[in-house]
Amino acid sequence: RTKAKHVQRVAQVLLDRYRGRVPCSATELTKLPGVGPKVAHLVLSVSYGVDSGIVVDTHVHRFAGRLHWTDPRRARTPEHTRAALESFLPRELWGDLTVDVIGFCQTVCTPVNPKCETCTLNSMCPSSAIRVEPRSPRSDSREEQEQSSISALAYEP
């Protein structure tokens, strides 16, 4: 219900204030009802190809915490995690990070019972439940493609 109301209100505001055009800055987008930094950065990335910030949802937030890319005492919210990640990840990775990490977390680094034994980041993940030697991908499965993309992001801040 709330999302539907926000969509209706946003549509009306876009017509009234922006002549039906979607703003092209995070500052303007976050002035719209129900639009926070996550949605603003997502809209800019998808609609305009502008990587104005890392889109941090619960998956990205969990992933960053498990890899100890963020300090759990400081990065208690996705917005804190976004600021922390943006402080050390190169800007050219910001756009792909969200898509790659979300897919990876839906299939491998799940909230409950993560598949640590098949994870390509296992050997460097401080939160891994099981230690196994890294293996090289042998097929083109979706899971392995996502893990390959994730491996490219395996920074140690």
SSE inventory with pairings:
Layout lengths: L1 H17 L7 H4 L7 H12 L9 H9 L11 H11 L2 H17 L34 H11 L5
The pLDDT mean sits at 86
Helical percent range?
40-55%
Q: How many DSSP E strands? A: 0
Q: What is the count of structural domains?
A: 2
Measure the end-to-end span.
40 Å
Architecture of the largest domain, according to CATH?
A: Orthogonal Bundle
How is the CATH topology of the largest domain named? Endonuclease Iii, domain 2
Largest sheet: none
Number of helices: 7
Radius of gyration computed on alpha carbons: 18 Å
CATH superfamily of the largest domain: Helix-hairpin-Helix base-excision DNA repair enzymes (C-terminal)
CATH class of the largest domain: Mainly Alpha
Q: Give the low-confidence spans.
A: none
Query: Quick one: overall form?
Result: elongated
GO molecular function: 4 iron, 4 sulfur cluster binding; DNA binding; DNA-(apurinic or apyrimidinic site) endonuclease activity; lyase activity; metal ion binding; oxidized pyrimidine nucleobase lesion DNA N-glycosylase activity
Protein name: HhH-GPD domain-containing protein
Family: Belongs to the Nth/MutY family.
Keywords: 4Fe-4S, DNA damage, DNA repair, Glycosidase, Hydrolase, Iron, Iron-sulfur, Lyase, Metal-binding
Describe the protein's architecture and organization.
- With 157 residues, the chain is mainly α.
- It folds into two domains: 1-50, Hypothetical protein, domain 2 (Endonuclease III, domain 1, Orthogonal Bundle); 53-157, Helix-hairpin-Helix base-excision DNA repair enzymes (C-terminal) (Endonuclease Iii, domain 2, Orthogonal Bundle), CATH 1.10.1670.
- It is built from seven helices and no strands.
- Helix 4 packs across helix 5 and helix 6 packs antiparallel against helix 7 (142-152).
- The chain is elongated, with a radius of gyration of 18 Å.
- The relative contact order is 0.10.
- The model has no long low-confidence stretch (mean pLDDT 86).
- This is HhH-GPD domain-containing protein.
- Keywords: 4Fe-4S, DNA damage, DNA repair, Glycosidase, Hydrolase, Iron, Iron-sulfur, Lyase, Metal-binding.
- Residues 132-145 have a biased composition (Basic and acidic residues).
- GO terms for molecular function: 4 iron, 4 sulfur cluster binding; DNA binding; DNA-(apurinic or apyrimidinic site) endonuclease activity; lyase activity; metal ion binding; oxidized pyrimidine nucleobase lesion DNA N-glycosylase activity.
- One of its GO terms (cellular component) is nucleus.
